[in-house]
Automatic annotation (TrEMBL):
GO terms for MF: AMP kinase activity; ATP binding
Domain of life: Eukaryota
Alphabetized Pfam families for the sequence: ADK (PF00406), ADK_lid (PF05191)
Keyword field: Kinase, Nucleotide-binding, Transferase
PROSITE patterns for the chain: ADENYLATE_KINASE
Biased composition (Polar residues): 18-35
Annotated region (Disordered), positions in chain: 1-52
Presence of keyword DNA-binding: no
Family note: Belongs to the adenylate kinase family.
Entries under NCBIfam families matching the protein: adk
Domain Adenylate kinase active site lid: 163-182
The protein, known as: Adenylate kinase active site lid domain-containing protein
UniProt xrefs under InterPro entries: Adenyl_kin_sub, Adenylat/UMP-CMP_kin, Adenylat_kinase_CS, Adenylate_kinase_lid-dom, P-loop_NTPase
Length: 184
């Protein structure tokens, strides 16, 4: 896997004592031209989703979350792959790396990913990382940045336990950090 680029510098946040990538260097485009190929790693609640939205909008790249891709695949009732994914997820199991990589391969081929991509929480295993590396090599692409979010366990617990999701819109809120305008 590639090492983080200069634009993935880290700064200390005094508010929550977590290390976060600095967004001040976002105006610097990667050497490959426009767009970027980025991986964000870290536990749930570390801020990957928040930053991935900002980064994908800034670089005009597609944002890919394996969780979202898997949920979308389960919606296709006619697909044998979707059926296998649905059965595995309903049983509480982990979807096979081969299937996950197939979804990744299909999605980075879409026109909306022609300018680059951002993986939110993928790869999750060494095997997935190695397979991603081979996939990118076969397409003559490389990663511009890999950013790992480190966050203290006590803050992570506060972030996860305070999460609120508005089911009808899909918007997320937090009791403490981003409360909804109306009580949920």
């Amino acid at each position: 896997m590639a090492s983080p680029s200069a634009s993935a510098t880290k700064k200390r946040s005094e508010d929550n004592e977590q290390t976060q990538p600095s967004l001040k260097n976002l105006g610097t485009k990667p050497q490959t031209g426009t767009g970027a190929n980025i991986v964000l790693l870290g536990p749930p609640g570390s801020g990957k989703g928040t930053q991935s939205t900002r980064l994908s909008e800034h670089y005009k790249i597609c944002q890919l979350s394996t969780g979202d891709l898997l949920r979308q695949a389960t919606q296709d009732a006619s697909s044998p792959e979707g059926k296998r994914i649905r059965q595995t997820m309903e049983a509480g199991g982990l979807v096979d790396d081969h299937i996950v990589m197939s979804l990744i391969d299909k999605n980075i081929s879409k026109p909306e990913c022609s300018n680059g991509f951002l993986f939110d929480g993928f790869p999750r295993t060494i095997n997935q990382g190695e397979q991603l590396e081979h996939l990118l090599e076969s397409r003559q692409k490389r990663l511009d940045a890999v950013i790992e979010y480190a966050i203290p366990d006590d803050l992570l617990k506060r972030r996860i336990l305070g999460r609120l999701i508005h089911k009808s819109s899909g918007r997320t809120y937090h009791e403490e950090f981003n409360p909804p305008k109306e009580s949920m």
